[in-house]
Amino acid sequence: MTVGPPITRADLDNTLNREIGAVWSALDAVNKRNLWLNHSSHTNALLLTPLGYSGPGAGSDIDILRGAFTDLASLWNLSHGNTGAQGVAAVGSTAALNNFFFNATLVQGLNWYG
Questions:
Q1: pLDDT digit string (tens) for 55-70?
Q2: Cβ atoms within 10 Å, residue 69
């Protein structure tokens, strides 16, 4: 006796495609937010300080926030085989030559939206 609904290939394909899409979408959102944060109109004085973020300075809210998005945007770059990685993720510069979404595009086939 099995417990739970039976699984089909279509079920697994759909689940895998949703998971791949979620990773892609999350990294895409982080990359776009990093670009937004680094836009010339979003300086600390014009955007972050008036919103109540402390800093800039080592360990301040602003440095932590900007550092986090720089590192996560580097993960976006690394996952796409871009060499523009910055921050902590740049330590894996040899990985920057690899497109980590290569096989994911094959899984999603014609439905790949990345």
A1: 888 788 899 988 888 8
A2: 19
